[in-house]
Predict the 3D structure of the following.
Amino acid sequence: MTVFVDLYTDADTFLHRLDPRVKIVAVVLLSLLALIIGNLVHLLVLLAFVLLLLALGRATLSKTVFALKFVFRIMVMIVVLWPIFDPSGTPVLAELGPVKITEPAIWKGVAMAVRVCCLATVWYILMFTTSQRDLVRGLVKLGLRFDFGLALAIALRFIPTFGVTVESITDAQRARGLELDKGAPLRRSKNYVAVLVPTIVSALRTADMLSLALQSRAYGARPDRTYLRDLKMRWTDALALAVVVTIFAIPAIAKYLLDASL
């Protein structure tokens, strides 16, 4: 049983060394840029830049394949379905009753698939190069309330753990002879109750232990907080932020102020 508990890959690259606040802002701006751009060629240029950043992040091949295989399935689905539901444009390449497959619709589907790949990949880069601790700390420094940040950190930590728990309980029930994948849909749903109930019990037990651990450390006793490791902007962080802002600003200005076609 192979489970990725964390997408973060420990490495010594400039992306790993960047301030998490810079990476969060960069990911948001690159995501907005992918939404602004509509031209397929420009989207491919953006995708090439994003894939270059992904390579520089030195994520392991197994984690990269694990993350991007879901994106690839969505891309294929978009390319296949978009021409079916968008009959606009000419020339018409194929026609079957009310369904028309046109050349512009195919290219629109490809462009939308590339856009989805850009959006997903930039966020995966953030997860590959930023530890959960630094990610939450960066969000808090950007203005997120600390208790919300703590809730996010707990979710990032325990959601994969519960995935492992569900798989362990499922394997244990199958070892006892429970057939979860056989029978009618209603019967299969009833069989999964034997997995659901122990999972809920385990989750409640974990939540109770976590609350006791927070209380024993006097969480919330003082409104002010101190940190073992604080975040500080360096000149390299400022330079990287300036580059990303420039990459976003030029196309945005060209489209919304100069009415350029992107």
